[in-house]
Amino acid sequence: MNNRLDGMIIRGFEQAPSEPCLWWRGEWWSRGALDEMVSECENNLEKSGFGTGHKLALIMPNSPLLLASCIAAWRLGGSVVPVNPQLKYPPLPDYLGSVGVFAAIVSAEIGGIAERIAEAGIPCATAKLGDSIPPFEGRDAGAAADPDVAAMFHTSGVEGIVKAVPVTHVNIITLLSSILEAIPSLNEDDIILNAIPNYHSLGFVIGGILPLAAGMPQVLVSSFTPPKNTLYAIRTAGVTIIPAVPVMLSILLGGERNVTPMSKVKLLFYGGGTLMPGIAERAREIFGVTPLPGYGLTEESSVLAVTPSDDAMKPGTSGRILSCFDAKVICEDGSPAEFNSEGRLWIRGEAVTAGYYEAPGVTSERFRDGWFDTQDIVRVDDEGYITIVSPALDVITSGGMTVYAGEIEAMFERHPQVAQAAVIGVPGGKRGETPRAYVVLKEGGGVKPRELISFGRAHLPNYKAPRSVRILPELPTDNLGRVLKHELRNL
User: Fold this and answer.
1) What is the dihedral angle through the alpha carbons of 282, 285, 288, 291, rounded to the nearest 10 degrees?
2) Domain of 433: which CATH number?
3) Lowest CB count within 10 Å: 257, 301, 415, 486, which one?
4) What sign results for the dihedral spanned by CA atoms 438, 444, 447, 452?
């Protein structure tokens, strides 16, 4: 097995340079055209002093520039650090400094960021999303890092603790091979939508790198908003495979009316949470397919489980664990859980990162003897299908009893006036913790907190029922729509 992504990708470019590679802003680019862009980026990076073990920050939306910069950096033995362009200042330059980037490439469409990064002493160049990296002067960022690392992702999870996750070429290649094995219907004739932000591991690996490495064309959109632009791209470019996250599907399908059904989509995968009510039905109406759930984490290169087809879907599960992973479920007392019994999920395999960047404390907590603690409470059946009960951070101990926030949230979201709910544990005297619910109402909803408390008591045991409910206009979320519960604790 080739152990470098750049080698796999460039070989595909050289074997069929005239084949379509990516659709961008209404036009198809050939593999040869992207290869030329890669060569120009590589040439200017090399002139800047970029080389083996250096890290290049990429602060930009999905684009040809992002993909070409990645391949160019890899060809020179370096790695990339995709960064959310909306990351606030001053944390942005602080983060770039903490991971020791050689320089940052910033989209010219983003105003003000490049100057602030440069003021912090980090070399910064700007470029248009359809152009290559311009000439610039880099810096000595200290000792060279591991040349086997392909990308480093910024993650804080829902708990708000910032971590940097280095993912190697072998991690990603192993994962891609396992995905293609698990979903045999994927082939070179498919056209993949690349709309999930590529600063996130799921968007980067599945939307951007999978089609490049497997020789599939991709349809690049810089953002899945406004939805009409993305729906136009899907239809016009003939997308057949849609990777998505729930918030993306809600935006694409929840607000757009009078959308003509599309017949070319054959698979729609989603991960990163549950679908809002009505979205699955709307997806079947517009795309003609059922959304297929999956599950994954940045620490294992983005995807851990997939549902390969409609026929293979098990209601309530998040798919089948991929063959490249070993998994074990551990009970609270440390004993192995039986099939379909609840416990904490640990995984290992060649797609799992070795640890967090320069964070020995948290690494030792989560990585033990080759196993990674996902912190998720799950059930796994005898066929490897996984059901997410609750993230471990969402486990509440109330009166000595274990309470899963996800169960309470699902109960509230069955209320006819509730659009979304999030539950946390708050100190509750002798009870230890008590559940508190934060609720967003549907348009026109007028239910009062006391009525929701009564609703909870009518549907849950006493120790699980929230004593307080707060109604909010919206829940704090990250860019993928995941609720940031550490922010709820500050409300």
Assistant:
1) 10
2) 3.30.300.30
3) 257
4) negative
Q: Look at residue 55 and tell me if it is in a domain.
A: yes
Q: Is 392 exposed, middle or buried (0-12, 13-18, 19+ CB in 10 A)?
A: middle
SS3 426: strand
Q: How many CA atoms lie within 13 A of 47 on its CB side?
A: 10
Task: Tell me whether residue 193 is in a domain.
Answer: no
Distance CA 218, CA 237 (A): 9
- Does the structure show a pLDDT above 60 at 157? no
Residue entry with tokens 């307080």 = 468
> Which amino acid is residue 3, in one-letter code?
N
Look at residue 436 and tell me if it is in a domain: yes
List the CATH number of the domain containing 13.
3.40.50.980
- Read off the tokens for 37: 């862009």
The last residue of one of the domains, among 125, 147, 168, is: 168
- 1 pLDDT above the threshold of 60: no
Q: Is 414 exposed, middle or buried (0-12, 13-18, 19+ CB in 10 A)?
A: exposed
Would you say residue 333 lies in a domain? no
The separation between CA 224 and the C-alpha centre of its own chain, rounded to angstroms, equals: 14
Residue 274: what pLDDT? 82
Write phi, then psi, for 480 (nearest 5 degrees).
-100, 5
Q: What is the mean pLDDT of residues 201-228?
A: 96
Number of domains in the chain: 2
Burial 362-389 (b: 16+ CB within 10 A, else e): ebeebbeeebbbbbbbbbbeeebbbbbb
Q: How far is residue 52 from each of residues 73, 143, 144, 477, measured CA to CA in Å?
A: 9, 10, 7, 37
* Structural Rg of the chain based on CA atoms: 23
Residue 409's domain comprises 399-488
Q: Cα separation of 96 and 164, whole Å?
A: 10
In angstroms, rounded to a whole number, what is the distance separating the alpha carbons of residues 284 and 290? Answer: 5
Domain-ending residue, one of 143, 168, 193: 168
pLDDT digits (tens, 9 = 90+) for 16-67: 999 999 999 999 999 999 999 999 999 999 999 999 999 999 999 999 999 9
Asked whether the predicted pLDDT for residue 480 surpasses 90, the reply is no
Global confidence as pTM? 0.87
Q: Is 458 exposed, middle or buried (0-12, 13-18, 19+ CB in 10 A)?
A: exposed
371 beta partners: 368
pLDDT for the residue numbered 88: 62
Taking 70 as the threshold, does the pLDDT of residue 481 lie above it?
A: yes
